[in-house]
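Lab meeting minutes (informal)
Scribe: AK
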Amino acid sequence: MKLIADSGSTKTSWYLLTGTPELDRCCETAGINPFFQRKSEILSALESDFTLPKQAITSLSFYGAGATTNEKKMELCNALRQFFAIRDISIDSDLLGAARALCGRSQGIAAILGTGSNSCYYDGQRIALYVSPLGYVLGDEGSGAILGRKLLADILKNQLPEHLIKVFFETYQTTPAEIMENVYRKPFPNRYMAGFTKFLSENIQYEELRQIVFVSFCEFFNRNIAQLPQAATLPVNVAGSIAWYFSSILHSAAQHCGFAIGKVIRQPLDGLVEYHKGVI
């Protein structure tokens, strides 16, 4: 039986493809990223959260971020082989996974707006052109990590109305010192910052918060999609929770920047399942 994994910085979605749809099963674990995690940490995440029957698995197609070098890819592969006790493992980028889920075997512009962001031109088989996302320090425009970072910065520098700042601290029962500790000293600050996008979503009626999202999406289009010549004629298809929950603002930002939005999906897994079934 084939196991398909779609891994982001926050979570990994797993789907066991049995050949009989009513017997297919899925589960979620913490995000897996070999750029930030050692083999032992990857194994620990799997051992605590993975709930599907390992003995039934004969092959694995893993799509995720962080396997940017042969060393990191091998480290991830070794961890997966140790946990699943199988040899048939393919590891591809989360961006290729999104492209296959969004475009199938047709050409298109594919993007991710989740905890991080990414984008490419996909020719129907491979990623033919892309702009490096650079991560949440230098890039990741439009991502959950950047939206959260902008929100926290505006909160701590008193750039938002006083009542919104008050609601924020009442909601999260945190302090400026705790925020600084989580951002600068604790692991996975990108996950931490992305967690505050819920506050943006729940209070998006305030123009100050809508502008945080709109401006960040415009930065994504202008700094990334604009470098893909094919985006002048092809719609931009986007996967990810940030694109999904802020889809109306995403459409507005795209139009403002001269682009058109195609498909928007919350996560690539369903499309990847169809791709591997050969339906698309």
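Next up, CB showed the second protein from the same session:
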Amino acid sequence: MPKPSKFISLEVLKLKLPLVSGWIDQTLAIHAAKVRPVSDFGFERLPKYYSATFLAGAKVIPIERVPMPPLSQFELPEFGEFEKGDYAGVTYKNTYFVQSSRLMDESLHFHELVHVVQWAQMGVEGFLLAYAAGLAAHGYRNSPLEAMAYGFQAYFDQNGKPEDMESVIKTKLSELRLNPTRD
């Protein structure tokens, strides 16, 4: 995925946050009837990395195409390519959408759960600002929050030793100091 072609300031991003946040809330409300806790899927390995309480609180929505915010409509054309992407999953707060064809892909769930922890630790504003800044500076795959999720997913895929991922992710976020709204 190419990087956005234009620089975008933190001030502009902050001004657009209510639009993106409102769209997220509306999208989650529209799909609320389809929500299932991750714990309902009976994955064998995820409970070795995430607590039972966390897996019961993290939610999944199966869908044919994951919903992306209409960033171009929000006058954020720098993110047009990202907006058009066809992703296997996307996380909003403690809930993530997964393409129906990938619903039983435990590795994908692991990746999205990394984002659930990031959202919880950073808050809505902090996550959205850090994600947008990382996307603008590094492109999708190399943005810090995605790089972290892909890195931990690779560890999981290689049968890395089970750890308390919630703590590991929180520590990594603190080390990276990615939250532009806190300090």
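CB comment: Strands lie at 36-37, 59-63, 89-92, 95-99.
No objections, moving on.
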